[in-house]
Amino acid sequence: MTSISLKTERLLLRRWRAEDVEPFAAMCADPKVMQFIGSGATRSLEQTEKSIEVFERQWEEKGFGLFAIEVLDESAFIGFTGLSEPSFLPEIMPAVEIGWRLSREHWGQGYATEAAREALEFGLKDLDLPDIVSIFQIENEASRNVIVKLGMHFDRRTNDPTCDRVVEVYRKSAEHHEGKAKTR
Ligand SMILES: CC(C)(COP(=O)(O)OP(=O)(O)OC[C@H]1O[C@@H](n2cnc3c(N)ncnc32)[C@H](O)[C@@H]1OP(=O)(O)O)[C@@H](O)C(=O)NCCC(=O)NCCS
Fold first, then answer.
1. pLDDT tens-place string over residues 112-165
2. Residue nearest ligand 1's atom 15 by CA
3. Which of 63, 90, 168, 184 has its CA 20 to 30 A from that of 161?
4. Distance from the CA of 133 to the center of ligand 1, in angstroms?
5. Tens of pLDDT, residues 95-108
């Protein structure tokens, strides 16, 4: 699992590297990017560095995690997609969540959906997870749009107790997923 990487038509999904810290910190310092994440607070360089350590530890401990995303032609970090455990929302636990975050200059090119489709496939087919949820704050139309394009189904509307914001939970089960199993 340590060397896992996935390719789509335009993107590489891979484990995190030291050189991702700087562009990821710039993304997480952008209020527009962070607007619908938790309380909407931006993150410092130190917090971003710690997040990457947590992402990488999760890969080692759980065998799944968040992928850093690169545009294949450019070899440059543009954001992340992948799997995590949404422990901030105890009412749906145990669960595995798919999420995404891109730097602003890479929005509107279909990259989030392209990457997330591959990560969803990885979770449901390669890892054999029974289902995967996605959670977004209801004003986050861009995220809702990605979720709908992934063919996920409404599960519930509830409150994120960590920031008292209204979220919706969508879900996709392996049973209702038509992707093909891959051999890697
Ligand atoms: C959520 C987020 C990742 C969505 O990014 P995005 O670029 O809007 O998402 P997509 O990949 O679906 O691309 C959107 C648009 O790109 C356009 N596009 C341009 N070229 C394209 C191509 N080659 N293929 C597909 N779509 C393309 C499409 O018009 C598409 O919109 P549509 O589906 O309405 O037609 C982004 O807004 C973000 O990082 N937000 C901040 C972080 C965040 O809120 N994360 C989620 C927390 S729940």
1. 999 999 999 999 999 999 999 999 999 999 999 999 999 999 999 999 999 999
2. 108
3. 63
4. 18
5. 999 999 999 999 99
CA 145 to ligand 1 center in whole angstroms: 8
Amino acid at 159: N
Question: Per-residue pLDDT for 182 more than 70?
Answer: no
Q: DSSP letters of 67-121?
A: EEEEETTTTEEEEEEEEE--TT-GGG-S--EEEEEE-GGGTTSSHHHHHHHHHHH
User: Cβ < 6 Å from ligand 1: which residues?
Assistant: 33, 36-37, 99-102, 107-113, 136, 140, 142-143, 145-146, 149
Q: Residue 61 Cα, ligand 1 centroid: separation in angstroms?
A: 30
Q: 78 in a domain, yes or no?
A: yes
Ligand 1 centroid to 99 CA: how many Å? Answer: 13
Give a yes or no: residue 89 inside a domain: yes
In a domain, 184, yes or no: no
Which pLDDT score is estimated for 183? 42
Backbone CA torsion sign across 114, 116, 122, 128: negative
Q: Has residue 1 been placed in a domain? A: no
Taking alpha carbons only, the member of 30, 120, 19 closest to residue 77 is: 19
Nearest residue (by CA) to ligand 1, atom 42, is 101
How many independent structural domains does the chain possess?
1
